[in-house]
Amino acid sequence: MNRLSEESRVRWVDFIRALSAFLVVLAHIQYKGAGPAWAGWFYYSLSRVAVPLFFMVPGYLLLSKTESVSAFFQRRLVRVFVPFLLWSVIYLVWKQEGFGNPFMELMKSYLVRILRGPRENHLWFFYELFGLYLFTPILRIYTSRASRSDLMYFCGLWFLMIPVGNLIQEFTPIKIGFSYQFLGGYIGYFIYGYFAGGMEFTRRQKSFAIAIFVLCWGLTMLGMYFRSIHNLKSQYFEDYQSINVVMMAASLFVCFSKAPISDQIKRVVLPLSRASFGIYLVHVIVVAEVFSNPQLGAVSSSGSAIYMIPFMGVLGFVLSFLLIQILRAIPILRILAP
Hints:
mainly alpha, globular, single chain, 13 helices
C-alpha cells in the first residue's frame, strides 16, 4: 500500500500527530504555582512519548512509498527543511542573537550557528530527522525486502544496544566498547513505526499494550521521584531512549494502530494533524510570550498544578494552532506553516 498517498485517510495517524503535538506543548509548560510534586511528574512523564511518536509516524508513512530519490528530497526540502531553516532564523531574531552586526554578516553568522546545532532546544528533533531522511532511500530497499522476522531482529537489536545498553552503562561500571554507531539515534523508532503500523493487532494484544504503557508510565514517574529525593544527576528515566519511554511509546503506537476514528472526531483531529508540524515549530515562542504577558502571567502561578498544567497546555496548543492557521491564510507567510 502507498501509505503516503493515503495519508489524509489514515485517521489513526492523524490522531497520533495531533496528540503528539499537544504533548510536546505540554512538555514545555513551566508552572510556578502550588500543587503536589507528583502532578508535574505525572504530566511530564506522559509527554515523553510525543517525540518518539513523531519519529514513528514518518517511518510508517515514508518507508513503504515508492518514488525516486530526487522526488523524495525535493518534497522534504520544501515541506520540512525550508520551514525549519526559516524558523531557526526566527528564533535567533527572537532571542536577539548577534544584533548590531551588518545584515549580511548577521545572516552568515546565523547560518553557521544553525549548521552547528539547534538554535532552540526543541529544534534538535529536525537534526535527527534529517539524518533519517538521508538514509530513507536506503532503508526503503531494506524494508521492501525484509520479512517480519527481519524487522523484528532490527528493532530488537536496536532495543538491546541502545535502551538496554544505555541502562547498563548508566547504572553499572560496565562500559560497552564495541562499535555500533550505525544503530544510534532514533532509527529504531523509524523502523518500528513502519513495522508496527503495517501489522494487525487483536483486542487482547492492544489490552496488553495498554497495560505495558501504564506500567512504564508509572516507572517513569517513579524514576523522576527517586531522582528528586536522592538528588541524582541521571536523567535516564526521562530520556527518549530509555527502556521505559521506548516501551511507553511503542505500546501506545500499538494501541492507536488501526483504531477506528469516527467522522466527528476526524473533523476535529484532521486540521490539528495538518498543523502539527507548524505547532511544533512555533509553540515555544507562543508559550513564552503568552505566559510572560502581565495579564496572563498570573495564570502560570495560580491554582493547583493538577489542573493548571493541562489548562496551560491546552491554551498554548490552541493559540499555536490559531497562529499557524493565520500564517497559512497569508500567501507570503504560508511557507512558515507547512
